[in-house]
Please model this.
Amino acid sequence: MKHITFYLDFISPYAYLAFEKLPETLKGITHSVTYKPLLFASLLKHHWQLGPAEIESKRDWTYRQVLWLASQQGTALQMPASHPFNPLALLRLAIASDAQGAPNRYVCETLFRHVWLGGHEAADVQRLEAVTAQLAPQRAANSDEVKAQLKAHSDEAIAAGVFGVPTFVVDGKAFWGLDALPMLRDYLCAGAFFAESNWDSVSQVSQGIPRRK
Model:
């Protein structure tokens, strides 16, 4: 049985769409999944990147594309009233819902849909209070323990080569993005591509013109 670690942030519409699509992707495959919320902004900072919503024209394109993708895969999605927003409260709530900091699918589904259904403010205080009451977390979301676990998830992901969300890590291989789901399935089904040197050979391509940070 293959084990998949799913790194996610509720701020990402691609992570939401991948979360909804994952059961179909894994149909017929014996597997287990651990969901690990992390702060996407910490990945961006580590890799010296801007988020899609920080580049004006890319922001508009991203929102158009995710709405189209949602319609194509049959997933309900409405943009929240404002985006990006501070996702820390939601991430900490997810972490607090499990003693090991790995929330189950129901918790993740509830928080994703809190953001991506209804067109409301994701960080609205009253809505946060309501979803907290619904999930009844085992621990205080603002505890030092929960904050440390959230940071640990981000640090773990960076060490595993994760640079964005959603990312699925299995057997030390990181599959990034909604559009990587078919590739993930092919790997789990022992696709011929992975029997060759394709995965590791790309690291031998030299970098022609490096950009300065």
The first strand starts at residue 2 and ends at 8. Residues 53 and 59 are 4 Å apart (CA to CA). The chain has a mean pLDDT of 96. Residues 56-73 form the longest helix (18 residues).
